[in-house]
C-alpha cells in the first residue's frame, strides 16, 4: 500500500459519492494536492446500494435546480472524460398525481423548473399508461414527465469520479479510517488515522456519510443526521418489461419504480420510518445490510404493489434493507462548520447522494477555493442547526417522518409533526389558550394563526387553496391595519455584542452606518466580498460599547458564526446569545400608541420616541427595552421583556387593550402584512447570490462611510453601473381569487423574466401579493415597471398583475412615522 503523505492541501474523509465528487471538482479548479481517505473500500457505506435515480423530483429553489442539473449533465458526459462508464441512461422520469391537490402542486412547480432548465411537462392519464404500461393508472388524474432524466449505476459513477479525481492529481487511499480531526486554536489542521498516522492539511472535509456525525462529534462539531432503514424490493423477471421503462414516482404509494435486470424495483419512502443505530454506526459496517422488518413494511409493500399489480405474479428476487442518513429538514449539511475553521462538511444527503452529489461537490469545491459558494446556500448551510437537533431523542423522533416527506404529498404550510416543542416562548400556554395554532420555525413553536377557541385551532384539511383558518387570519390582518395587534416574536434571535471593539466589528460587517448615537436602531444588510447578502437585521446601539443585534430565527447560527469569525486579531468583543432570556412582544397598528399609553408613563409621541429609536420604558411594574421599529408597516413597538416578566406584561397589554379590540396575530399575518410593504427577509426573499442594490435596499448601503465595510467595493461597482438590469419588484394579482406562495414565474409582455421569491395574500391591497427579481436585457426603469404588461403564472395559468418598485401600501411611510 502506498505510504500516506504527511501533508495535503485538502484531506477528504470518505470515499463515497460525495467524497469522490468533492475531490473531482476540487481538481477541476486546479487543486491537485487532494487526499481522499476511505475507511474501507470506495462506495462501501451507502453508495453501493443506492438506486441511482437521476430524477428531479419537485425542486423549489434555484439552488436545488442548479445542483440537480449539474449532476445530470456531468454523469451523462463523464465517461468521455475518464473512460469509466457511469451507466447513465436517459430513460425518462414520470410523476403521477391521483388527486386534485397534487395536480395543482405539480402545475405550480413545473413552470419554475422549466425556467431553470428542467423540462417538466404535464401528460394525460392515457400518456401515463403508454409511458408506464405495467402500471394500474385508473386513479391517475395527470402525470408530469421529464424525458432527459433517468438512472445511473452508483458504483460506476463513483469509480468514474475517482478516476477523474486521480487524473487531476488527487490521491485516494482505501482501508484508511480517520480516527480524529486534528485542531489548533479552533482550526482544523489535519487528521489522524486509526493507525496513528497524521496528515496535516489546510482544509479538512467531512464526507463520511452516516458516520459523519460521530467523527464530527469527536471534534466538538454538531452534525444532526441519523441513519434510517431504507427498503427496496426487486422482483423476478417480468416478461415484456422494457429496459428503457421510465422511472415512476408515486406519492400515493410512497414508492418509486424502475426496471432492474428485467424485473422491477419498488423503492419505499414510507411514513413511520425506523431509525437505525441511534447510539452510533459501527465502524466496521461495510457493504452491509439490515435484517428486514417484514411486519412493519408489509403494509407499505402491499400499497406499493397496488400500483403495479402485475408484479405480484412473479417472485421476489430480493428484499433489501440498508441504512441511509437523513437530516431534520431533509436538506443536506454543507459548508464550513461553525465550531472549527477550515473544517468543511458535505453529508446528510437524505438518500439523494448520487442524485445531488455532483452539484454538492461542485458547490463545496468552489466554496473552499473561492471563499464564497457559487449558489444560494441558506437552505443547506450546516450552520442552520443547533445542538438541540442532534440529541438522540430528537433524532429518534424526527427521523420517523423524514422518509415519508421525501415522497408524499406536500403542502405550503405543513409543519413537522415529530420532535416538536423544542423551543417554546414563556407565553406558549397563554397563546394556546387564546386559540393559537402552532407551526415550527428553526425549532421554535410559533403561532401561525389564532382560532376563536382552542378547540377550533386545527387545520381541517391541508390544501393549496383557502383553508378553514383563512377568515380568522384575515381578521388578524385587518386588526393590524385598523386597530392593534400583539405578536409573540420571541423566536427572533438576539445577540448582545459588547466590548471596546464592538463598534469596529459591527461597522466592518454592516453596509449601513452603525456608529451612531446610543438609542438609535439601524436596519442594515451584511454583505460578503462579492456584495451578496449574508444577513439583513437591525443593530441597536445601547451604549458606547454595547450593541444589540436582532435577526430572524432562520439566520441564528449563520449570524453568530459570521460575527465570531470576523473579530480581528487583538480585538476585544464579547458576543452573548440572549435569545432565551428575552420574550419579544410586538405591539402594532394605528391604535398601538393608545394601548401603550395605557400601560406606560413614558413619552410615546412621535417627537419623544421617534421611529428607529430604542428607549428603556416602564410598562406596568416592569422596566424594559422598547424599540420603535416595524416589520408590518404600521405604527408600533418591539418590547424586549425579560422572560420572568413576560406573562405579566402580556396579560397587562391584553387587558388594557380589550376595548380597543386588541387581537393576537400569528406568522401568517406577519407574512401578509410585510409583503404588502414589500419588506425583505434574508433566507426567504434574498440570499447570498443577491445584493442590496438590486434588492432595492440601496438606502441602507452607505458607500462613503468611514472605514468602509465588507463588500463595499463590489457594491460600489454595482451602483456605478447605473439602473440595474436585475431588480426586485413587488407584484399584486389583479384577480383576487388565486393565491401566491413563491416560485411563480413572472412574465413581461409575454416573455418569462423572473420568478417570485415569496407570496402571500394582501388583504388590504385586495389580492395575492409577492416579491421577486426580474432580469431584463435593459435597465429595469420605473417606466418599464409601470407600463408592463405583467403576468404571473399560477398553476399553469397566467394571471395579469401590477408591478411596483416602491411598496404599494403606504410608500410614503405615513402609517409608520405617525
Topology:
Blueprint (H helix, E strand, L loop, with lengths): L6 E7 L3 H12 L5 E4 L15 E2 L7 H21 L10 E5 L2 H16 L5 E3 L1 H7 L10 E5 L3 E2 L2 H14 L3 E3 L4 E7 L2 E7 L4 E9 L5 H7 L7 E10 L11 E4 L4 E6 L2 E6 L25 H14 L8 E11 L6 E4 L6 E5 L5 H18 L21 H16 L20 H6 L2 E6 L2 E7 L19 H13 L2 E4 L4 E6 L3 H8 L11 E7 L5 E9 L4 E6 L4 H10 L8 E4 L4 E7 L3 H8 L14 E6 L2 E6 L8 E7 L3 H11 L6 E2 L2 H10 L35 H9 L5 E8 L11 E4 L2 E12 L4 E9 L6 H6 L2 E5 L2 E8 L14
Explain this structure.
- Residues 427-705 form the GCVT N-terminal domain.
- GO terms for molecular function: oxidoreductase activity.
- Belongs to the GcvT family.
- There is one protein chain.
- A hairpin with a 2-residue loop joins β9 (178-184) and β10 (187-193).
- It is built from 18 helices and 37 strands.
- Helix content is 25%, strand content 27%.
- The strands form 7 sheets. Strands 1, 2, 8, 9, 10, 11, 17 and 18 form an 8-stranded mixed sheet that branches. Strands 5-6-4-13-14-15-12-16 form an 8-stranded mixed sheet.
- Among the domains are: 1-87 and 152-224 and 327-385, FAD/NAD(P)-binding domain; 493-580, Aminomethyltransferase beta-barrel domains (Alpha-Beta Plaits, 2-Layer Sandwich), CATH 3.30.70; 581-660, Gyrase A, domain 2 (2-Layer Sandwich), CATH 3.30.1360; 723-818, Aminomethyltransferase beta-barrel domains (Elongation Factor Tu (Ef-tu), domain 3), CATH 2.40.30.110.
- The radius of gyration is 27 Å and the shape is globular.
- By secondary structure, it is an alpha+beta fold.
- The model has no long low-confidence stretch (mean pLDDT 97).
